[in-house]
Amino acid sequence: MNRVRFAPWICALLAALLPVPALSQAASESITLRGRAMGTAWSVTIRPDQPIDAASLERAISERLEQLEQQFSTYRTRSELSQFNANARPHPDWISVSPEMATVAAESRRISELTLGAFDATVAPLVRLWGFGPQRRSGASLPNENEIRSTRLSVDWRSLEVRLHPPALRKLSANLEADFSSLAKGFAADEVSRLLTTAINGAATHLVQIGGDTRASLGGRATSPNRVGSKSDWYMAIESADVDNPSPSAVIDLKGQALSTSGDYRNFFTLNGERYGHIIDPRTGRPASSSLAAVSVVHASCATSSALATALFVMGTEEAFRFATEHRLPCFLQIREGSNLTRRMTPEFAALLRADPP
């Protein structure tokens, strides 16, 4: 869970992301709204182009997030996704869903295919098996090989089919469960950004954060959008995966893009000297295991950056860097080398770096 707290400058303390103020932006010029939704904290920071009704704006954001939570929640038994998961029909019938659900499911399948199964929205049974679901792990033993093998039979992204027009899903396995958590918060950040851009006058320049996913606007009426410190700049600091030294590891200009970070440095358990993180590799049925501590991905879509960050973390250092390089993806890796952390980034990410972070 990531909690957001803004200081007089636009400065948040997040588990993965820290916004940094543009040099010319005074604190009094910004409006920050906060709340809770989708199991985490959210915040929206606006640099108004004209006077706005903050109370109405906060209400509109909260209502949109509540709609999305009622669609994607795996904790609410009456949510759209929970109802789909509970529908164990003997034949693979199409089940009508909302356009948002179909859109997220289609992107989930695309990322799964693109990453050869490193990302899989049907991985929930394995997450529960390892004790990272709603029922937390107890005891001093690990799942055995038979448990892992049998649970993996219920996990396969190819068994979840999507139809966009009219929107519908179907499961080719009656035991299949979908969990779009890795995309839903990013999708929600995209939706709130769209709301601010198209529906609310004066809020075109904004920064949306939902948990560890962040979406920045392209900018409002700044006279020089490319000028360092202009009103449309959003500088984001990526927190070090070293929890004992949480200083910024990199600062980038996020104008008009989204940033997501995935890592295991906060949610894990240790047993018999071995570390087990909460991100499960659906290809093996086990927690992802590599030298990676965290992966940050920048993309035009926050839903996509969130899914890709998860997939790249599952891949491990070398495979992730190779994938990101081949796809020209702005990607930043934090790698464990003994007791130290090293950094590795693609040229596309390096191009976003700010050389003189405040």
Could you describe the 3D structure shown?
This protein is α+β, with helices and mostly antiparallel strands. The chain is built from nine helices and 18 strands. The strands form five sheets. It has an eight-stranded antiparallel beta sheet with strand order 2-3-7-8-11-16-17-18. Strands 1-9-10 form a three-stranded antiparallel beta sheet, with no helix packed on it. It is globular, with a radius of gyration of 20 Å. The protein has a domain at 76-181: Orthogonal Bundle (T-fold).
What is the CATH T-level topology of the domain at 76-181? T-fold
β-strand percent reads 15-25%
What is the CATH C-level name of the domain at 76-181? Mainly Alpha
Cα end-to-end separation: 27 Å
> Class by helix and strand content?
alpha+beta
Tell me the CATH architecture of the domain at 76-181. Orthogonal Bundle
Instruction: Give me the strand/helix succession.
Output: EEEHHEHHHEEHEEEEEEEEEEHHEEH
The side-by-side strand order for the widest beta sheet comes to 2-3-7-8-11-16-17-18
* Share in helix: 25-40%
In terms of quaternary structure, the protein is: single chain
Radius of gyration over all CA atoms, rounded: 20 Å
Number of strands: 18
Average pLDDT: 85
- Which spans of ≥5 residues are poorly predicted at pLDDT below 50? 1-16, 21-28, 220-229
* Shape category: globular
CATH superfamily of the domain at 76-181: ApbE-like superfamily
State the major sheet: 8 strands, antiparallel
Count of helical stretches: 9
Give the topology, please.
Elements (H helix, E strand, L loop, with lengths): L16 E4 L10 E7 L2 E7 L7 H19 L7 H7 L8 E2 L2 H16 L9 H6 L15 H8 L7 E5 L2 E5 L9 H18 L7 E5 L2 E4 L18 E5 L8 E6 L4 E6 L4 E4 L2 E4 L2 E2 L4 E2 L4 E8 L2 H14 L1 H10 L4 E7 L2 E6 L1 H4 L8
Antiparallel strand pairs: 1-9, 2-3, 3-7, 4-6, 5-6, 7-8, 8-11, 9-10, 11-16, 12-13, 14-15, 16-17, 17-18
